[in-house]
Please model this.
Amino acid sequence: MPVDLSGALRVAIDSRLAEADRKKAKGDVDEACRLYRECAALMRQYAEETPFPKISEQRQHVALVYEERASGLLPQKESGAEYSHGDADNTLLKGEVSQLIHRSSITWEDIGGLEETKEQLKLAYGIEIAQKPDRVRVKGWKTILFYGPPGTGKTLLAAATSNGLEATFFNVSLSGILSKYFGESSKLISALYSEARRLAPSVVYIDEIEALSTQRSGDETGAERRVTSSLLTELDGIVGKSDSRYVLTIGSTNLPWLLDKAILSRFEKKIFVPLPDEKARQNILRIHLEHQGIDSNVSYSELAAMTEGYSGRELERISREVISQMIRELNPQIPELVSRGFNAIRSYKLKLRPVTRKDFVTVLTNSRPEVTTSDLQRFADWQESVG
Ligand SMILES: Nc1ncnc2c1ncn2[C@@H]1O[C@H](COP(=O)(O)OP(=O)(O)OP(=O)(O)O)[C@@H](O)[C@H]1O
Ligand SMILES: [Mg+2]
Model:
């Protein structure tokens, strides 16, 4: 039976990395260099352990980062010139952080329903940013946690908030960071917040925040522990201070019950983002049909009644399927035109008609809502348990 060494490798890399950082901080460049190279070699081995190409590629990338770190230490040794060990790290990390900055054009109008949530969000940063009379110290929120079933508009809300503020939007998936940057993740978090402050106003959106949970992994590694502590430090820093550079952190999770108390308590405001109700479903369907220039000859209230239990993401998928089937039916020649080449299809104009009740029935018969009532119960139970 093959032995799974991946856990042992992770621990080995992690401890060497910490040691390398310590040596570097003490100015023991040779030893730090040697350790970073060892980390790189082990990381390559770790990359070969996984059958998943994408993960393997990410680990190879991290190995490269360790290599660069090792060589980044060398100029000082060779030239004896004034050179900060941190420079290579900082430039590298800044580059990585810049990849997390997203441009989005989502506005509040692109989000159906969730009226109260939108209101609360606007209030949160409105209070923080508005001028206050002398001696008045009221504070808005700087840390908000979204929790709720998948596909209900959490990312959309964060993007619209960011847009509304004309802020820099950092979109961070925690599990992605942990698997990609591994032992470097906690440095990335610090670099992220330093960039967020520099480019303020900023919205830092941290998705899958439960990835830091001790309950989830059981074998929480040093890397996760360090990320948690970096994040807690950053959150404490932004909540405590009245800084003119506004950085709003929005955490997001589908599994709030996995969150550790330490993390949970850092979020000043916790907002449940539910499945859309009847009215919200009408709005969401309008956004994905009418606002896309597609007419419907069924009323939106009827469509909303037919789609009870579906999330916003599913409603979007359903709308797209309905539209694509209608297009297929009216334009059967498309595949033939495409195989004749770019110019043939470019000169063709799509035929369209309003979507019908029957179109929806066809798509809905083969589909069931992803979120079950027991999932919803779990959210309700958790809500009750945290008060
Ligand atoms: N309230 C909504 N109004 C309009 N579209 C929505 C809404 N909610 C979801 N959608 C559609 O579903 C897609 C996914 O939404 P979003 O990414 O915001 O979900 P999420 O809550 O962040 O999901 P997850 O928890 O899985 O990350 C959106 O791009 C949009 O097309
Ligand atoms: Mg999301």
Notes: Residues 111-114, 150-156, 207, 254, 284, 287, 312-313, 316 surround adenosine-5'-triphosphate (ligand 1) (CB under 6 Å). The radius of gyration is 25 Å. The chain has 19 helices and six strands.
